[in-house]
Amino acid sequence: MKIEHVFFDLDHTLWDFDKNSGLTFEKIFKLNNVNIEIDDFLRIYMPINLEYWRLYRDEKVTKEALRYNRLKKSFDKLNFEISDVLIDKLAIDYIDNLSSFNYLFEGTFEILDYLKSKYQLHIITNGFDEVQMKKMTSSKIIDYFDAIITSDSVGVKKPNPKVFNFALKKANATAENSVMIGDSLEADINGALNVGFNVIHCVFNDETATDNNVTSVANLLEIKQYL
């Protein structure tokens, strides 16, 4: 069946989460007089953040626990003394300021312009509803998308099939005439495959594992080869 619908993940696929997140921490540390080397912090924080997102995705921690514990564990590992009150403030400041930085991956606007004339475009993201909408609005990509599905709006997270089935229903699409494009092999690719989607895996760095049986691209503009 001919592809009619293209579903994108947002973070790490279109929106450069690592770069924007690092700039946000640099900003809020200055605002709150947290005297710590940003590179040292990010080196510790990034794997801890990924660990807590996996726990959150698997329904093992709450949103509040994710926001607090990823910071608490990072500061503890760095032996940096900081009060719980300040950690809570940093967690709030981080969310409030994250969408003020809006670096997108190279080729984002070009590939969206190319695809928009041929397909209906949609977003499926595990991010928080209020944060993801601000990111897409501030980075000026929100108008490219017809249906925007967040895990908050569904009540479960990718790779849960309920997310993908909800997205298909909202977009008035079928799995057979849809393709899912994302960076996470587990959440985006395997999750979509299990529901019957076509898939394209974004492998933007050497650390991202891929499957030899799955179509993959090293940059967004390579998508033109397949769509």
TrEMBL record:
Its EC number is 3.1.3.5. It is an enzyme of class 3 (hydrolase). It holds the Pfam family HAD_2. It comes from the Bacteria. Keywords: Hydrolase. The keyword Electron transport does not apply. InterPro entries: HAD-like_sf, HAD-SF_hydro_IA, HAD-SF_hydro_IA_YjjG/PynA, HAD_2, HAD_sf, PGP-like_dom2, Pyrimidine_5'-ntase_YjjG. GO terms for molecular function: 5'-nucleotidase activity. The keyword Hydrolase applies. SUPFAM superfamilies: HAD-like. This is YjjG family noncanonical pyrimidine nucleotidase. It comes from Polaribacter marinaquae. The lineage of its organism: Bacteria, Pseudomonadati, Bacteroidota, Flavobacteriia, Flavobacteriales.
